[in-house]
Specification:
This protein is mostly helical. About 60% of the residues lie in helices and about 0% in strands.
């Protein structure tokens, strides 16, 4: 799940929690919305921490030089 998926979860969860007045007998939509927002927030935090580890310092790709000694 990327940044877009996490943001969608947060937005849909907020709409279910704060902007909807639907009522279902067996489902608490406020709780479902809060769970979706929590999962989206956790996913966003995990994605950004993994993304930080993948980046190289300065944005440069490291160059590896190979030397072969021919005698």
């Amino acid at each position: 799940m990327g940044i877009g998926g996490c943001i969608v979860l947060i937005v849909v969860g907020a709409i279910l929690t704060f902007a909807s007045d639907w009522e279902l007998e067996s489902v608490n939509l406020d709780l479902v919305g809060l769970i979706m927002m929590a999962v989206g927030g956790i996913g966003l935090a995990v994605y950004t921490s993994v993304y930080k580890r993948r980046r190289t310092p300065g944005g440069a790709i490291p160059v590896v030089e190979e030397r072969r000694d021919i005698h």
